[in-house]
Design a protein that fits this description.
The complex is a heterodimer of chains A (about 625) and B (about 160). Chain A has about 625 residues and is an alpha/beta fold. Chain A has five domains: about 130 residues, Glutaredoxin; about 200 residues, Rossmann fold; about 80 residues, Roll (Ubiquitin-like (UB roll)), CATH 3.10.20; about 90 residues, NADH-ubiquinone oxidoreductase 51kDa subunit, iron-sulphur binding domain (de novo design (two linked rop proteins), Up-down Bundle), CATH 1.20.1440; about 55 residues, Alpha-Beta Plaits, CATH 3.30.70.20. In chain A, the strands form six sheets. In chain A, strands 2-3-1-4-5 form a five-stranded mixed beta sheet, covered by helices on one side. A five-stranded mixed beta sheet of chain A has the order 13-12-16-14-15, sandwiched between helices. A four-stranded parallel beta sheet of chain A has the order 10-9-8-11, with helices on both faces. Chain A is globular. By secondary structure, chain B is α+β, with helices and mostly antiparallel strands. Chain B folds into two domains: about 55 residues, no CATH class; about 80 residues, Glutaredoxin (3-Layer(aba) Sandwich). In chain B, about 45% of the residues lie in helices and about 10% in strands. In chain B, helix 1 packs across helix 2 and helix 6 runs parallel beside helix 7. The two termini of chain B are about 20 Å apart. Classes of the chains: A alpha/beta (about 625), B alpha+beta (about 160).
Chain lengths: ~625, ~160
């Protein structure tokens, strides 16, 4: 238990020494992605092999390190999930990709014993071999602030976090700064909430500080519900202490003594790692009563979500922590006045808190030096979909969409053609080819009719049907609508019905206008953010791809060839031998003909089940 | 499946978490983890212990997607239908699983209580899309055939 600042400093120094004790470090990625590709088996095998060689294998920071040995660590997500499992070799900074258990022997033999690089495990593209992690194009254009430790330290060790200067910002906030100075620094930095809205974090903190209340709370929104987004998960898993430190600083600055972290149920690994991190912080006295003798008390709790997207909305989230149905309420009063348990509450998301330690430590000016004027700092994005390098990235705000997709993301998967990117999840919109040079920052993206949101980027190629994508999002929002207010509950249902009939080939003239009219009404009258933005994907796809909607409605044709009901199944007369096998197998009797001459499908009867396609021995039946 | 519900087991869960109204969700999660669903017998008991109405508990249990008032299978298979998985072809995987187990959108659990198949909006493992989970264990880069193989293994070995 650390009793004061001096003890913390001495302990940190000891951690730094221990961290530097072994030059050779092997970091095995233990993020959700690599774990499911078997990285824990690789870790176990490496340990076994290293020890069998009689080499000392340090799996944690040691109080009294040996004179020689290898440090083996489980790190957080490196971000390059597509190429997992990943193993990083230090001090050279080599990155081995797609490592298998069978490769471990070679790694130990060549790399650990002889210090040789194994070429076949390195990332290769277009004949070029990239030895170190930093020179791989995926990493080269990134600026890692929030994710700086992800993949570089053992995420489950507070000592490792301390060895990187961890909790120095908290220490500074407690002992060298007044609460007002901390808030001023955060305000000056221009840090805006990374959860979607982009509200200035400093202003929120100042409002909570001003409230005259016996109890105040700090709440972290880890209910990252947007499909296609996993930035916050990676931070919680890969560098949990960084986020805790941000929350502790917020607590000290605003006068809150209790904090809650709300994590969605789908992130069991994040919950587990946060629990460990909180227990460690408590054990060394960074959480609890009279922290480091400063007089500041702070406790942290974890709440697991139970599967409700709407709980990402502030007032729904606090209701859920209180053990109620997660339904938003009318605002004002706002969360800063009447939040959790009716007390003033600072509510920020994971990435926002994770930015705080660096700002306090390095100052507002340093932070403002990254990104663009109105959106300083970096932003983490999860790039997924039809992209070559799926994964987690962090770039300065204002990086263009083209740089993200082509330079970092490596372009469209399989050399396909870029069609659109869905940004901001079900509340966001689509950006298209004309937006490729758009700088990704809060205001520019908003102006283009989308939103940064939490940072999910789903890339779509030309084989994607945008009407179907709109239907997919509307289906999601409609499912997740909590049902409290009529515009959202009924409006999303009606919009979904219209979209469903359009993709089924039953669209009617006037449907587009009807969709837009409903969208306008829902946005104007719904109670919370989920409802207000529910129609965004529809409005945005109509704006950018109106001709696709028209083709579905007027010509009963899906230009991308995706919509099942709009497919045409046809028999190629030149290939058909007239065997009648398809006709006998057709469940609706839509195929007829004379034996030994080409058969025909009656399109009015065909239900597009495709049974005939698979039964035809001559591959004469095609889907168009 | 337990034929009778041991209320002292439920008490243990409540006391472990803390007998407070704000812990309703955690308590229900604890009970569900133990029984794989929320047996209706537990509601009067939890309500009495917490000093709240049963309706209050039901309001929470029916609001959140993760709570089930019906028994779930021994293996709960979640097919991710988040955006990334959806564009990388998760629907055929779901169709295959349902077809092989005789399940549908409304019938989610097999009669022998071995399998439950449900969809989930996003598991956050988009880099490995499409993914499914079997009792929270992630299986990456799935195809309908790989899904069939997992089912076969689960049926034969009781694990995968």
């Amino acid at each position: 238990m650390l009793k004061d600042r001096q003890e913390l400093r001495a302990f940190r120094e000891e951690c730094v020494r221990a961290y530097n004790a072994y030059k050779r470090k092997i970091l095995v990625c233990a993020g959700t992605g690599c774990v499911s590709s078997g990285s824990l088996n690789i870790y176990a095998r490496l340990r076994e092999l290293i020890e069998a060689k009689g080499i000392h294998c340090a799996v944690e920071l040691e109080h009294e390190p040996e004179s020689e040995g290898v440090a083996l660590k489980k790190s957080g997500c490196h971000g390059f999930c597509e190429r997992g499992p990943l193993v990083r070799i230090e001090p050279e900074g080599w990155l081995y990709t797609k490592v298998k258990v069978e490769d471990c022997e070679e790694i130990v033999e060549k790399t650990i014993v002889n210090g040789e690089h194994i070429e076949r495990l390195a990332f290769q593209k277009n004949g070029e071999i990239y030895k170190t992690q930093e020179e791989i194009p995926f990493y080269k254009k990134q600026t890692r602030v929030v994710l700086e430790h992800c993949g570089h330290i053992d995420s489950l060790s507070v000592k490792e976090y301390l060895s990187q200067g961890g909790y120095s910002a908290f220490e500074k906030a407690l002992f060298d700064m007044t609460p007002d100075e901390v808030i001023e620094e955060v305000s000056d930095s221009g840090l805006r909430g990374r959860g979607g809205g982009g509200f200035p974090a400093g202003r929120k903190w100042a409002q909570v500080k001003r409230q005259n209340a016996a109890q105040k709370y700090v709440v972290c929104n880890g209910d990252e519900g947007d499909p296609g987004a996993f930035m916050d998960r990676s931070i919680m898993e890969g560098d949990p202490h960084r986020m805790l430190e941000g929350m502790m600083i917020a607590g000290a600055a605003c006068g809150a003594t209790e904090g809650y972290i709300y994590v969605r149920a789908e992130y069991p690994l994040a919950v587990e790692r946060l629990k460990t991190a909180i227990a460690q912080a408590k054990e060394i006295g960074l959480l609890g009563k009279n922290i480091l003798g400063s007089g500041f008390d702070f406790e942290l709790h974890i709440n697991r979500g139970a599967g409700a997207f709407v709980c990402g909305e502030g007032s729904a989230l606090t209701a859920s922590i209180e053990g109620k149905r997660g339904m938003p309420r009318v605002k004002p009063p706002r969360t800063v006045e009447h939040g959790l348990f009716d007390s003033p509450t600072v509510l920020n998301n994971v990435e926002t808190y994770a930015n705080v330690p660096s700002i306090v430590l390095r100052g507002a000016d340093w932070f403002k030096g990254i990104g663009v004027e109105k959106s300083p700092g970096t932003k983490a994005f999860a790039i997924t979909g039809d992209i070559e390098n799926t994964g987690l990235i962090e770039v300065p705000m204002g990086t263009t969409l083209r740089e993200v997709i082509y330079d970092v993301g490596g372009g469209i998967r399989g050399g396909g053609k870029f069609k659109a990117v869905q940004i901001g999840g079900p509340s966001g919109g689509t950006l298209t080819e004309k937006d490729l040079d758009l700088p990704l920052d809060f205001d520019s993206v908003k102006k283009a009719g989308a939103m940064i949101g939490s940072g999910g980027l789903v890339v779509m190629n030309d084989k994607t049907c945008m009407v179907e994508v709109a239907r997919f999002f509307m289906n999601f929002t409609q499912n997740e609508s909590c049902g409290k207010c009529v515009p959202c509950r009924e409006g999303t249902k009606r919009m979904l019905e219209i979209l469903e009939r359009i993709v089924a080939g039953n669209g009617e003239p006037g449907d587009i206008d009807l969709l837009l009219e409903l969208a306008e009404t829902i946005s104007a009258t719904a109670l919370c953010g989920l409802g207000k933005s529910a129609a965004s994907p529809v409005v945005s796809t109509i704006k950018n791809f109106r001709e696709e909607y028209e083709a579905h409605i007027n010509e009963k044709r899906c230009p991308a060839g995706v919509c099942q009901k709009l497919k045409r199944i046809e028999i190629q007369p030149d290939k058909c031998k007239g065997c009648s096998k398809c006709s006998r197998g057709c469940p609706v009797g839509a195929i007829s003909g004379v034996i030994k001459s080409p058969f025909v499908i009656d399109q009015s009867k065909c239900i597009k089940c495709g049974a005939c396609v698979t039964t035809c021995p001559f591959h004469a039946i095609e889907v168009k | 499946m337990q034929s009778t519900i041991q209320l002292d087991e439920v008490d243990k869960i409540i006391d472990g978490i803390g007998c407070e109204e704000k812990n309703i969700i955690s308590i229900l999660q604890g009970v569900q983890e133990h029984y794989r669903y929320l047996p209706k017998e537990v509601f009067p008991h939890i309500a009495k212990r917490l000093g709240v109405g049963e309706a209050r508990l039901f309001s929470v249990a029916t609001f959140y997607e993760n709570f089930s008032l019906e028994p779930k299978g021994k293996f709960v298979i979640k097919v991710c239908d988040g955006t990334a998985c959806h564009v990388r072809q998760s629907p055929p995987i779901l169709a295959r699983l349902r077809q092989e187990l005789g399940l549908s959108e409304t019938k989610k659990t097999t009669d022998d209580l071995m399998f439950t198949v449900e969809t989930v909006s996003c598991l956050g493992a988009c880099g490995l899309a499409p993914v499914i989970t079997v009792n929270d264990h992630v299986h990456a880069e799935m195809t309908p055939d790989k899904a069939s193989a997992i089912l076969k293994k689960l049926k034969e070995d009781g694990e995968c």
